[in-house]
Design goal:
Immunoglobulin-like; five-stranded antiparallel sheet; globular; four-stranded mixed sheet
């Protein structure tokens, strides 16, 4: 006996293409960007606290800071950076609590008045007197 096999005919149909057309609007579109999510184990570092002192202490002198906060103590001063005529700065990193401080000329002469207080992440400009 002879088997008869029938061949199936397959038609090739071209695939449909989808085209997306963006319309230009007359007004600019504002996008809201959500803050990035923190990854597990990511750093929870506090923002830096910036302290600037505006005072002319005379040529050859240096301004120091003492207090409570990361890297500070009331026993030994930390030198501030002179960034201009009568302008001194320091950055306190990783302060989780308020930074309480006083400034000293040449780490010897204390500024007069109450202690200064800078909140974590704050930029504080002071004009101390001696």
């Amino acid at each position: 006996m002879k088997k008869i096999t029938k061949k199936a005919t397959v038609e090739k149909v071209p695939a449909k293409k989808t085209v997306v057309v963006a319309k230009k609007s007359a007004a600019p579109v504002k996008k809201t960007v959500s803050p990035a999510k923190k990854k597990p184990g990511a750093s929870t570092e506090s923002p830096a606290t910036f302290i600037t002192a505006k005072i002319d202490i005379g040529f050859g002198n240096h301004l120091y800071i003492r207090g409570t906060g990361p890297g500070l103590s009331w026993d030994h001063g930390v030198a501030m950076d002179c960034v201009g005529a009568g302008l001194w700065t320091i950055t306190i990193k990783q302060a989780a609590l308020p930074v309480t401080f006083k400034v000293l000329v040449n780490d010897l002469s204390w500024s007069s008045g109450e202690d200064f207080v800078a909140e974590p992440g704050q930029s504080l400009t002071i004009s101390p007197s001696f």
